[in-house]
Amino acid sequence: MTRRLAVVAKKVGVSEATVSRVLNGKPGVSDATRQAVLSALDVLGYERPTQLRGERARLVGLVLPELQNPIFPAFAEVIGGALAQLGLTPVLCTQTRGGVSEADYVDLLLQQQVSGVVFAGGLYAQADAPHEHYDRLAERNIPVVLVNAAIEHLGFPAVSCDDAVAVEQAWRHLASLGHERIGLVLGPGDHVPSARKLAAARAVAGEIPEEHVARAMFSIEGGHAAASRLIDRGVTGFLCASDPLALGVVRAARRKGLDVPGRISVVGYDDSALMNCTEPPLTTVRQPIGAMGKAAVELLNAQISGSAVAPEELLFEPELVVRGSTAQAPRP
User: Fold this and answer.
1) Domain finish residue from 12, 34, 52
2) Cα dihedral 110, 112, 113, 118 sign
3) Domain interval for residue 175
4) Which CATH number is 226's domain given?
5) Considering its fold, how many domains does the chain have in total?
6) Is residue 330 part of a domain?
7) What is the mean pLDDT of each run of 10 residues along the chain (332 residues)?
8) Residues 205 and 148 in one domain
9) Which alpha helices (H) appear in the chain, and where do they start and end?
10) CA 49 to CA 31: how far, in whole Å?
11) pTM for this structure?
């Protein structure tokens, strides 16, 4: 019991005495704190006291495209914790290849009468993907917040990392090291954040040869295949749309017998977990995950509380983190 009190108190950010008062039905605790403690019990897998089991926590869907890319578990941790602080219980919905689709998850969440949904990555970022399930959420007036760039006209508020600033930071870093043949490894052609990154690169560098732009699925394997083509075309500096893509570039360079960063420099995007532990440690553009996740929850909670929230996009400033995967361009 003592351990449970300590774990729940740490999760919510209150004292063990406050948790004890909630579990024993004692007065002197605000409704918000009380709900936060009950939600924390649910999230941590503890049974509620018998007298409290009839109270159902408010549910919020947290829909992620995958968990293999460590950026998505990082978002889930921040968003889930912020929801619990507000007495909201996150329901994690993660897609797997051949498993439950995003649209199916939306139907399941609607059946559970969720209070709202946060999407951190998903089909809203792909222009050619089906989007009817978002219409169903809008028709039911379900509060929704999107994390990172979406197609136009969905009408939901969003929080995004500023792709233009991220690309400018990374491009100027590679250029300052003397790289003249800089290539882009991006996601699919209909992927909105990737399109923004390409537009930003053109704004910084002017015309970029098409043969210096490669598109791939967001995976190490996708980055490897794309980088192999660009390396053969003489590219020495790589700007990637995700950290796994960047790790794929490193692998491709090594398979060709090229040193990173001696011959090939690589910049990732996200600064997801363990990128400082790779060999070499990855230079990357850090998304402010904490600030973005908390802002997403604040926007969602405002809607749940009945406040009007404009369907606008909040842009957050990224930070270039220079490590060991970039160096002076090789001499001809």
Assistant:
1) 52
2) negative
3) 163-287
4) 3.40.50.2300
5) 3
6) no
7) 79 87 84 81 69 62 91 95 90 82 92 91 93 94 94 92 97 97 96 96 93 95 96 97 97 97 98 93 97 97 90 96 97 78
8) no
9) 2-12, 16-23, 31-44, 71-85, 102-111, 132-139, 163-176, 192-205, 220-232, 243-255, 289-304
10) 17
11) 0.81
Hey, is 235 helix, strand or coil?
coil
294, exposed or middle or buried, with CB in 10 Å at 0-12, 13-18, 19+? middle
Given a contact cutoff of 8 angstroms between Cβ atoms, the answer to whether 118 and 60 are in contact is: yes
- Distance from CA of residue 193 to its chain's centroid? 12
| Residues in contact with 265: Cβ distance below 8 Å, sequence separation at least 6, in sequence order | 174, 177, 179, 236, 237, 238, 283, 325, 326, 327, 329
Mutual orientation of helices 31-44 and 71-85 as an angle, nearest 10°?
Answer: 140
CATH label of the domain that carries residue 22: 1.10.260.40
Torsion of the alpha carbons at 186, 189, 190 and 196, rounded to the nearest 10: 50
> What tokens were used for 310?
């404009």
Same domain, 254 and 222: yes
Q: Which residue has the tokens 């991220």?
A: 166
